[in-house]
Design a protein that fits this description.
Blueprint lengths: L10 H8 L7 E4 L2 E7 L7 E9 L2 E5 L6 H13 L7 E5 L5 H4 L2 H8 L2 E4 L1 H4 L2 H5 L4 H14 L4 H8 L16 E2 L14 E4 L8 E5 L4 E5 L20 H13 L5 E4 L8 H24 L6 H6 L12 H20 L3 E4 L5 E4 L1
Parallel strand pairs: 4-5, 5-6, 6-7, 10-11
Antiparallel strand pairs: 1-2, 2-3, 3-4, 8-9, 9-10, 12-13
């Protein structure tokens, strides 16, 4: 397959991404700014926080995660645009992953801003980020990994792998629940929510028909594809949800995509087609590997797939993501009768 190289909306922003740098704070167009907020020790490097000017302040889309470095970068970026943190009236969170939601609570503490989430992600906040509830989530992850065939020696390490970034989130109950199709009611903006489950159950994009822009969060990115995985807080078939969500945003009449990572780009429909083709190829590869074995656990299948680096060099957190993403593809194939699962202490996968 020939992969589409999308046209960057800002070449300097693309070049900063490609060169391993943090891009500049940017006035995207009248009333709209892009503020890169760093994610330390992470290959994504930064979240692009979008600042929407209002008559009495600003609203922001996503916030970054809760470190002093991230907070200071957000404050400095707002200052370039002519605003202070106290001018933030609302935080539209695309989804509850730490690099998008983690700093929202601190912003609310400083400004009194409301926080908005989709109900499907709002329901997950306590179990994911409340210290009193997190042990239950880790145990459910451990059981899922055990049934996937993860070796006992690495089970605890992988089950608790996400705990290393638990501290970068200030748990904050949302003030507003935003459903698919809701108008956000921001003065001067015709912003509408588009529910795009897959990467998370409540992932939201935001579209402005008048400006013909899509704030895509992690749903559609210029270069990489988001992780779509089965885990204790996902639905049973998140890849089906994700592909349906891609089909939904593909129909939108926009001229520019403003993602949460990498850089702004054009050609939404073509990029969606490329991502869908990537998943088709992945599904076909997994189906071939299942067919070559006489019953295999998800973990064993994952170790035999093509990844961006050798399996032995993938760190534990990303191995868990790779396993759970493989499981999402298996669930999609199972739902369509292309593979079958034999449940047991370890679930084994066979050709249909």
């Amino acid at each position: 397959m020939t992969k589409l190289v999308v046209t960057p909306a800002n070449v300097a922003q693309r070049d900063a991404w490609a060169g391993g740098a943090i891009p500049e704070v940017e006035r995207v167009r009248p009333g709209l700014w892009s503020v890169p907020v760093p994610i330390p020790v992470n290959p994504l490097r930064y979240v692009l926080v979008y600042v929407l000017e209002l008559p009495d302040g600003v609203a922001i889309i996503d916030a970054g995660w809760n470190t002093d470095e991230a907070y200071d970068a957000l404050v400095a970026g707002l200052a370039v645009a002519g605003y202070a943190i106290t001018d933030v009236k609302g935080v539209l969170v695309t989804h509850i992953h730490p690099d998008h939601y983690g700093l929202a609570g601190r912003v609310r503490e400083m400004s009194g801003a409301w926080i908005a989430l989709h109900p499907a992600d709002a329901r997950l906040v306590r179990e994911r980020y409340d210290d009193a509830a997190i042990d239950s989530l880790v145990e459910r992850e451990r059981e899922l990994l055990r049934r996937c065939g993860v070796p006992e020696l690495t089970l605890d390490e992988l089950a608790g792998a996400s705990m290393m970034i638990r501290h970068v989130v200030t748990m904050a109950k949302p003030d507003r629940l935003v459903e698919d199709g809701d108008e956000l009611g921001l003065p001067g903006w015709d912003l509408r929510a588009v529910w795009t489950p897959g990467h998370s159950p409540g992932h939201l994009c935001f579209v402005s028909p008048a400006r013909r822009v899509l704030f895509s969060g992690d749903h559609v990115l210029a270069k990489i594809t988001p992780i779509v995985a089965v885990h204790p807080q996902s639905g049973p078939n998140p890849l089906a949800d994700y592909l349906d969500s891609l089909a939904a945003v593909r129909k939108l009449d926009v001229e520019e995509v403003l993602p949460a990572h990498e850089y702004r780009f054009l050609e939404l429909a073509e990029r969606v087609d490329t991502v869908m083709a990537h998943h088709d190829e992945r599904l076909a590869e997994i189906e071939r590997v299942v067919g070559s074995l006489d019953g295999a656990a998800c973990w064993d299948l994952a170790t035999r797939l093509t990844w961006s680096r050798p399996w032995e060099t993938i760190p534990p957190f990303m191995r868990r993501a790779a396993n759970n993403e493989t499981l999402a593809h298996l669930a999609w194939l199972e739902a369509r009768g292309r593979v079958r699962r034999v449940a047991g202490e370890q679930d084994l996968w066979f050709p249909a």
